Amino acid sequence: MTSLASKTGLAYQIVDAIRSVVGRKYAGLHEPCFNGNELTYIKECIDTTYVSSVGKFVDRFESDIADYTDAKYAVAVMNGTAALHIALKLAGIESGDEVLVPALTFVATANSVSYCGAIPHFVDSNESTLGVCPHALHSYLKKISKIRQQQCINTNTGRVIRAVVPMHTFGHPVDIEGLLDVAKEFHLIVVEDAAESLGSTVNGRHTGTFGLMGVLSFNGNKTITTGGGGAIITNDKVIAKMAKHLTTTAKVPHRWEFIHDEIGYNYRLPNINAALGCAQLEQLTGFLDKKRNLFKRYQIEFKKIPQVKIFSEPNDCHSNYWLQTLMLHDSVADQRDSILAVTNDAELMTRPVWTLMHHLAPYQDCPKMDLSMVESLEKRLINLPSSTYSS
Amino acid sequence: MTSLASKTGLAYQIVDAIRSVVGRKYAGLHEPCFNGNELTYIKECIDTTYVSSVGKFVDRFESDIADYTDAKYAVAVMNGTAALHIALKLAGIESGDEVLVPALTFVATANSVSYCGAIPHFVDSNESTLGVCPHALHSYLKKISKIRQQQCINTNTGRVIRAVVPMHTFGHPVDIEGLLDVAKEFHLIVVEDAAESLGSTVNGRHTGTFGLMGVLSFNGNKTITTGGGGAIITNDKVIAKMAKHLTTTAKVPHRWEFIHDEIGYNYRLPNINAALGCAQLEQLTGFLDKKRNLFKRYQIEFKKIPQVKIFSEPNDCHSNYWLQTLMLHDSVADQRDSILAVTNDAELMTRPVWTLMHHLAPYQDCPKMDLSMVESLEKRLINLPSSTYSS
Question: Which of A265, A282, A299 is the last residue in one of the domains?
Fold first, then answer.
């Protein structure tokens, strides 16, 4: 490995920079850290036999998540995808609707729209947030839509554009306040995909609490993990109640009868996974400090390489720095794949941003705006080793 | 409680009979038992940080399930509902198809058909298996369908009847061989809902391995549990591969790229839940012995009460006796609710069978055959405390 790093060229400079931050050993992209009450709480589940979807850790995890995010309600589910699916159903997304979704996102954002029988409509990002650009979206909607009976109609397709699902990319908050203005003008429901942004705030307010609902993920690669897990957060009491009902097979509570009053889902988070989540949440503040520290150390190192910069939180935002992100200058964008190869060969796990949604086979025929910014970003973004233990 | 049990009347006789088997303390319907390597394996997940959907316990659990059931392949997923959904998708169920489903089942069987955009078509049960009656189904299909281009067409609705999903009720095998004959004659794909029947066999062959696919559940109330979990079992290599792909967001394996070649699902079982499953599976033989012993003890007690009988495994079958089941004689069917009330008041958890599917609001307009037997069974079935610790 030494021979690789001692070579010259941008990729090898980047290997050196990463190593000077995370050390010379293997560095994963984002590995969880279990230094708290994880085993104690799980042992309690085993000892009491409450391992499934009813149990005190599920209730506590929901309450802890609501407290932490300052949302009135949290409903814990099996993963972020399930949370998005139910949030969109509760937002009233129906078959044949269009939903505005960033082209630069993980595929779950688009898939959850498809699960509702609706069509994702892809929108461009802003370079300073990596998320949906309110200004570009506003101009685009002005051009392609009209408002009829308080609904936004896509004049090209004739379909209703019902909602927008901004995503807080790598934990960096989107310009949510700008988007709320656009959404209001065009009668769009806002569901925030905050899967990556637990701990990220905008002017002190937690991401996911600006829209009608927000969605969190606790997958194994996230800032805190429940193995697999997610949550819907909302300030709307009725929606919270419906979310719990719909994710619990729509079973009407009864001493023994099985009445299901609609087509529900088996999406609740098991108690054993919630136990892990409760223990992880106790450590979140420490994790966030470490992730911010890691960012600062990367920032110092990458200032020495003029063709790249480490992505920093947008103005007025406090980011969780979930995945540390390197942005290549246009002039070296063609070196992305060689940088990925050299860093991964050096056992420093890096990855590009997701393939853009409109480039994926199932979504290539969906409606989309001009996507120049995300096309450019796709060529220039590289995620770096981001585990808390690295700092 | 003594005063209740000393009263006369059928309900109180039943309380006495249950108590003489399970003792005088609270008895749950089906509580899991963790006396093996559960914590050891979970600790290994925590120590290695592999808690999410990639990990050695997921691989081992799949291999162990395949070995145990003698299926060639097993794909572990989040729960039985997810397994059914994917199995039906892989069976080629499409929007507008009809799928034959028992009216007497847990709602997940019907819901998974709905998730595919298809229509459940409800069929009657056999009193000796509680599952779909092949003879009644054969007569019914003769009457309402015709075969056109190797497809079974419902002549009333004009829709294709694509598949049948027999369910092994409370672990008692359906007449699967009879059903395979009917399915062959009418060109129906068979997906077995074996969610309740891990450990149940027909002529020595495990339930779930007769159809194109079978589906298992490891929910908290099942014979073994992973918290929440399920599996698809199949002897078809291509289907097994597709099941894993479709439940892993349809991501095409690549060193770093995110290519998803179809609309996939986030349904994989987390490693931490699989760890629990591996430990539980090691104890399955012991659990099954205890459940059979419990059945025998109930059988002795309930022989003393002529108006009821304890349900026993069908001919040529070996049942797991997941939920012990009391069958009331017609003459006392009107006492079902009072028996449920008195037993539950006595802290002996009993429950009726599920509300029949065609009585549920979302399914009341679905096609159905004459359902006299399940209508009768619904009034006469009561599940008894069935935990392994009771024996």
Answer: A282
Task: Convert the pLDDT of each residue in A300-333 to its tens digit.
Answer: 999 999 999 999 999 999 999 999 999 999 999 9
Centre a 10 Å sphere on the Cβ of residue B33 and count the other Cβ atoms it contains: 18
Number of domains in chain A: 2
Length of chain B: 391
Pair A56, A130 in one domain: yes
In angstroms, the Cα distances linking B193 to A59, A312, B87, B169, B183 are 31, 51, 10, 9, 15
Mean pLDDT of the region B293-320:
97
Residues B101 and B119 placed together within one structural domain of the fold: yes
Task: Please check whether residues A237 and A370 belong to one and the same domain.
Answer: no
Same domain, A345 and A253: no
Expressed in angstroms, the distance from the first to the final Cα of chain A is 22
Task: Give B188-215 pLDDT, tens digit per residue.
Answer: 999 999 999 999 999 999 999 999 999 9
- Name residue B167's beta-bridge partners: B193
CB contact at 8 A, B94 and B117:
yes
- Give the closest of A39, A52, A362 to B263, CB-based: A362
Q: Are residues A11 and A81 in the same domain?
A: no
* B273 CB within 8 Å of a chain A CB: yes
8 Å CB contact of A362 and B221: no
CA distance B376 to B111: 23
Final residue of a domain: which of A256, A282, A308?
Answer: A282
Mean pLDDT score across all residues of chain B: 96
Query: DSSP secondary structure string, B130-149?
Result: SSB-HHHHHHHHHHHEEEET
ipTM reported for the complex, 2 dp: 0.95
What phi and psi, each to the nearest 5 degrees, are found at residue B377?
-60, -40
Tell me the residue length of chain A.
391
Domain that residue B234 falls in: 38-282
B168, B130 Cβ separation under 8 angstroms: no
Residues A167 and A190 in one domain: yes
- pLDDT of A390 reads 65
A354: chain B residues, CB-CB within 8 Å: 258
Whether B198 and B305 map to the same domain: the answer is no
Angle at CA of residue B231, ends B227 and B233, nearest 5°: 155
Q: Which residues of A touch B274 (CB under 8 A)?
A: none
φ, ψ of residue A320 in degrees (nearest 5):
-80, -10
Q: Which of residues 195-234 of A touch B (CB under 8 A)?
A: 219-221, 225, 227-228
DSSP type of residue B172: P
b/e per residue B271-288 (b: at least 16 CB within 10 A): bbbbbbbbbbbebbeebb
SS3 A217: strand
**Rg of chain A over all Cα atoms, to the nearest angstrom:** 21
Name, in order, each residue with C-beta under 8 angstroms of B271's C-beta and a sequence gap of 6 or more.
A227, B45, B50, B51, B52, B53, B54, B55, B56, B57, B58
Q: Which two tokens stand for residue B260?
A: 């998803």
Statement to judge: residues A228 and A95 lie in one domain: yes
In this structure, what CATH number is given to the domain that contains residue A62? 3.40.640.10
Tokens of B304: 């003393």
**pLDDT tens profile B40-56:** 999 999 999 999 988 99
Three-state secondary structure readout of B76-95: EECCHHHHHHHHHHHCCCCC
- For residue A316, give both structure tokens: 């007025």
Q: How confident is the model at residue B4 (pLDDT cuts 50, 70, 90)?
A: very low
CATH of the domain at B289: 3.90.1150.10
B79 touches chain A (CB under 8 A): yes
- CA neighbor of B354 nearest in space, from B229, B228, B200, B196: B196
Alpha carbons B360 and B15: distance in angstroms, whole number: 30
